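Supplementary notes for students who missed Thursday's class. We covered one full example, reproduced here. Read the sequence, then the structure, then the short commentary at the end.
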Amino acid sequence: MAKNPRRKAALSIAGVAVLGGLAIGPSAFAAPVTTGPHAGAVAAIDLATGNKTATVESGLTTASDKVPTKADRPSRDELIPHGVEGAQSRIPLNDEQVSNAKAIVKAAKETGVGERGAVIGVATSLQESKLYNLGHLGTYNDHDSEGLFQQRPSSGWGTPEQITDPDYASKAFFGALKNVGDWQDLPLTAAAQTVQVSAFPYAYAQWEEQAADIVQQVW
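Structure (token representation):
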């Protein structure tokens, strides 16, 4: 199947563990919360991206104590209005990951979900793909999930070409988020889970602090 030449080729690999996120469809409702994060997800993405032992850091700061202060940037209270849930994870980012994060934030602005929506989107992508635009993983793929949010063509998210386009994928995610009642008042993991219907719903919460740092810097 032909891919869109205007976007970067999505990453792929065969023989890796199943990814730990399952985007069911844009109008799905949350499944029961029954388990914690899938430890194999990180290993699968590391292998798929060739970053098993090291990641090249970009110029984007990821430590929360290094975020520049500017009047036009959202406050921490706007970004994390309910506080974080549980232990937080953090990874270094390379230029490709930063570019994808910026695409998510741009889509958040254009769809009107604002700073909080951007945090939910970035945190969701950190969990689903580690901010990489992943292609199909062959026979070990998590169903037909692809892209930044591991969305599934078979569940109505779009074609493979569409869901591996960061702008389209982000706007599809935010369009579904806006259909979640009172999503602004929900904890991040609940808002993300209602859209994604992951088998590992608790996993989103661990990325809230880093997602807020990213949004605060690129907003």
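Commentary. The two ends are 35 Å apart (CA to CA). The chain has a mean pLDDT of 77. If anything here is unclear, bring it to office hours.
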